[in-house]
Every structure is written in structure tokens, then in C-alpha cells.
Write a structure and sequence with these properties.
It is built from six helices and eight strands; from the N terminus they run ααββββββββαααα. By secondary structure, it is an alpha+beta fold.
Amino acid sequence: MKFGTILSVLVVVTFVENVTAGLPLAVVINAGLRLILNNLKKNGNITHDPISITLPESKENIMIGSLILDDFIIYGMGGMNFTTEVKDVAIEDPEFSKVNVSLALTLDKLGLDTGYDVDIGILNELPIYGVGKIKLGISRVRVEMNVMLNLKSDLSKKNISDLNLQIAFHDTPAEITGFWKNSRASQFLTGIINILEKLFCMWFTYEKDCGNCVLAKLIEFGINQYLDPKKVNLVVDCDCLKNNKYNLKNVLENIGNSYVHGGSEAVNKYLASEEVYNILLDLYQNISAIIVNESYRL
């Protein structure tokens, strides 16, 4: 199933069916949601057209080069189990409909398998190049979600709100081939990625409230931009980010709002700013130290 069709099928087709059949909207939305989830389970994978990213030269030259992802597959849907609950919410305005959607699902594994062709320089120090395959994944995935779907009768307005998200998962071995066009370099990088993945899963487990809050804000913003593109700013009002060392609240909001008001060109311009440069440099130094320490422990 193509990634870009999922939300369109759920929101547009089921709403039209509701209008023609005169069924309660919650019944039709629930049927549409279950239809999509069952199709995902049957197909097992989500595919995407090739993705091409070009990073132009800038004053700071944080990242320069290009990245192409092809044969893009999100796998693991075949092992999905889920439950859904959809309820109509009473409102006074007859032109609008409001539906509460709850979803709980589990997956034995969930991962990304893609080909890549990359040639990027980072911070004028680290060359990233190669042609090969990337396989990333997580295991024992559990997702619980509750969200409000808001629709106008003619579909001129459609968005989600009040997204609450609870996610839990564990790490699973990753693999990269073709890095620096060298098998030993690929094995070394695979080891580093697995170390970082373990550390991220540990962090997400201990800071699950923070991680789930940030993910919910980003997902809600992304879905709303897809459903009804308009100039609405991203707000990541998660308490855990207020005193963050890297000011991630500001960084995430600037990335999102740069896209809303100026598209990918504005995002690239922000990513080339001195603020991002300093953050990436500090992260690069800290992650390098962590990798060295963890390597000694292996």
C-alpha cells in the first residue's frame, strides 16, 4: 500500500460514503480505519516512491551534498493486531462533525528497508558517501492513540486535534552495506548504529512521557499539514523541553514553521544557520565520546 493514500482513503472516501448512505459518521470512519489496517496487515508492507534530497552550499556548510532513497519499504505490518473504537461527539454547529478515534495496536517488529545513494559532507570534517542498503527496525511495538477528527460537511476543512499517544518498543539489530563503498567500514558503522539505537531505546523507555509528547505534537502537525495545508505554526509545548540544553523546542518549531511559511528551501536555510551548526557540533562531539565509551564496554 502506498503511504500517501492511507489518510486520503480514510478521510475522503469514508466521508463521501457516509453522506450517500446516511450512516453515522463514526460507524463509517471506524469501518474505513479497520479496512486500511486490515489491508496493511494483509499486504505486510508500506512502500514509497524514491526520495531525493539535495543539500546546497551555505555560509556555514553544515551539510552539503545529496541523498537518494529507493526501494523504500516499511515492513512488519503482517504481524499487527489491533482494536479500534470510534465515537461521534455532539456539537451544536450542523456544518461540522467531530469524531473521537481510539486505536491500540501491537507489532512483533516494525522496520525500514531501503536502498541509498549518498554523497554528503558534514561540518567540513566527516564525509558520508556510499551506495547500498539500510535496514533499521524496532521490536515488541505497542501503540495506544486517541485523537479527535474534525470535518466540515463539504470537506473544505478537515484536521485532527488533541492527539494523545503512548508508544513502547525495543531495539532490534540494524545493518548498513556499501558505506564508503567498503565492507569493513559498513560493519563498523553498523556497530555504531546498533549502539545508538540501544541508547535511544533506553532513553525513550525512561523518558516515555517526553518522547510521546514530542511525537504527538509532530505527528498532529504533519497530519494536519497533509489534510489541510495552511499557515498554522507548529507548537511543541512539552514541559520536558523547556530547559533542554539544545533548546529543542525552538529548533523543532523553527523547522516546522520554516516549512509552513517557506517550504523546503526555507527549511534548508534554517538548517544552515549558526544555531543549528553549534548544536550539531556539540552533538557530534558528545555522540563520538559515547560511541568510544560504549565500544570499550563491548
